[in-house]
Amino acid sequence: MGYYHKKRGLFLGVIALVFISTTAYKNDYFEIAKQIDIFTTLFKEINMNYVDKTSPAYLMEESVQQMLKELDPYTTYMNEQDVERARIYQSGAYVGIGATINATEDKLVVMEVYKEMPADKVGIKAGDEIIKIDGLAVSDLKEGAVQFLNGKKNTTVSLVYIRNKKTSEITVSRGGLKPKAVPVSRLLPSGIGYIALDRFTKTASKEVEAALKLMLIDEAKGIVLDLRNNPGGLLQEAVKIVNLFVPKGQVVVSTKSNVETYNQTFETPKQPLSLEIPLVVLINQKSASASEIVAGALQDLDRAVVIGKRSFGKGLVQRPKPLPYGSQLKVTISRYYTPSGRCIQALDYRNRKKDGSAIRYDENQYTAFKTKNGRTVYDGGGIQPDVVIGKERPNKFIERLLKSSLVFDFSNQYFYNNSVNDVEGFSLDKKDFERFKEMSLDKKYDALSESQASVDQLKNTLEEEGFGEMRRGFEDLESSLRASKMEMIESSKSEIVAVLEGEIIKRYFYREGMYSYFLTTNNEVYRAQEIINDQEVYNSILK
After folding, report:
1. Per-domain residue ranges for the chain?
2. Annotated catalytic sites, by residue?
3. Does CATH number 3.90.226.10 belong to domain 184-318+333-392?
4. What is the pLDDT of residues 286-313, one digit of tens each?
5. Most buried one in 67, 86, 253, 421, CB count within 10 A?
């Protein structure tokens, strides 16, 4: 019974925190107490009377996870073990091997290796599949496998991995510095400074500030701040970066909630480095959270021209809340708003489609706001650039394709079979693109197309219900579907090639090389320099 009471206390804490945080104390307390009583009684009756032996811990974990699915993907629950692992990792006492790892069912896949980190020094490459850690099979370690890669600094870990169907074993020393937040900063031949920021870590603002100071000394004509593919990070770092270009005491972002104490306003804390230097910010669909705060604030204050594609639209704020017995809830407490009053959030988790997916705000639902100079800007999720380059959003199939493992797998194959000696001389040719199209037809990637999944489901249903002979009628449909898929890929060739080339370049020249490659080939970077060099155009956009 003691174990039951512990679990009951845990769930009461979860429900109370989620419910109170999202209702601002406005709901009927009797209704809250009533629902909690019903659930705890039901939970007890199931565990005491069910025909088979139950696992109270498992049932509770599943019920909590199912409840949180009804909210948003950023509200998450961590059990005691998860909290402890996170605490150790964040304390700095444990370090990794200097690589980004993705966990699958029975192996760990290296997604990216950081330059001059331990993994890089021993020759680990993106695409390597780790199957054993210190003699233990990854498939046996399950979801905890990634944690076994971490350990105390200067200790070693033995790895067995598969590369291009060949199995190898290697010993890696743990340690090394974390990757820089600014992988590339340089003065371009045009006299314009370029700063790439790909994460908002504790050192992000200091790194941007150091790069900016050097460029001001070199009398740069303007600055291009590249936030593309930056998923965000620390809010305070975003405020400090905006502060480099705007006066002290300027509102950068505010948060609004149903709970009064969560309503906050964040202002720039000190004097800027430069109020005058022309500034362009680059964003795309993968620029999220803190990236959107920086881009949105600088746009609202008419301090920068924003170029690229509409950003991701992650405008929800989370805060950790302790729960009984060492567990924790990370709960969404408020929404971000830019200085003009725009909400960054793109998906409406309060209203969902029949399949349960969140609804994206439609253009006819957008609300107009005014920048400092009186320009009209809109909410609707994410930051809409002043100058849009390419398609604002690809169709759903292309979007899924670019996020899929197909891009990663194609890049691995290219790396195994080709040599690239120079960043500037690299480009994919027609044959390479045709091979990519052929790979997209592989059954392994059928899930990229919802339409194909629907066809497969219907065929299986017909088979189960005895209409198997009708399956032959799908051959023409599937043939047409494949042809249409090829046409879509061909029509989005430039966008797909840009993603592929960036991913491939990372294999040879790391993240730094990818940004260097973009400097020589990228339309957004070229357009940014063009606008900065034409003060009349630059000023006309901001006024």
Report:
1. 2-70, 93-173, 184-318+333-392, 397-521
2. 289, 300, 314
3. yes
4. 999 999 999 999 999 999 999 999 999 9
5. 253
